[in-house]
Amino acid sequence: MDQVLTGSLVLTVFQGIFIITVTVLSLSWLLIKLKKYYADINTGSHEASEVEGPPALLEHYKFQQSECRQKMQEEHTSKALFYKENILKPQEEAKRLKKENEYIKIFGPMWQTEGSVLGGEEDKLSENGDVTAGRKAARNRKVLEKINRKVADEAAIAAAAKQKQKRIITLPVEPDVDQEAVISVILRTPIGTICQRRFHDSDKIQCLLDFITTQGFSQRRYAISTSYPRMLLNNPDSLLSDYKFGKRVTLNIEEKE
């Protein structure tokens, strides 16, 4: 009788231990799943590739991803156009007016006129004995013509460069946070704001320059640099992996000198 009771007691103890072990393992598994789920929510990486379910559900998530990226691209393009119309063009116009005013202060308003043919008037002035005044006027006209040609050449060069640089910016697809060889780039802007995006370490510096352009900071007027030691990332063909940034890096957007 005692042996039966002892055996029953041992069996009960083992059953209790087994139930406790299963419970602990189940809670541990559930805790791991919850941590992963909340981590995905916090990092914003709850992408469609992580969703388990039927193919139709996966396709739905991929479609939503594509629409979201297209909307972001349109917003970036809109910001770039706003910057060009409201900041860049007024700055260029102000520089042109400043240069024009400087020419007027130095040479007077006559530098804007068409001028006259050289030679004829100087000969008449020489016949009347006013040789010095005639030569001085001729020199002034030559200087003004040279300035006009220089201004026209600079305008033509600027227009050609502007036309050459007109291209449609297409950013590479932003990788997931848990992918291999991904760098999270944080960019501090001159106006105190921060913009950030993920890139593959095989992407070129040109991708960063295109990204800041979509944020309203034209790569013709702004550059990207490291904080310390300060180094300009001025080679658009170099790769992000060349700089050994690691998984995360903070860079600066600064106006070119």
Automatic annotation (TrEMBL):
Protein name: UBX domain-containing protein
Domain named UBX: residues: 178-253
Zinc found in the keyword field: no
Top-level taxon of the source organism: Eukaryota
InterPro entries hit by this protein: Ubiquitin-like_domsf, UBX_dom, UBX_domain-protein
Transmembrane segments: 12-32
PROSITE patterns referenced in this protein's UniProt entry, alphabetically: UBX
Origin species: Arion vulgaris
UniProt GO MF annotations: ubiquitin binding
Key word Transmembrane present: yes
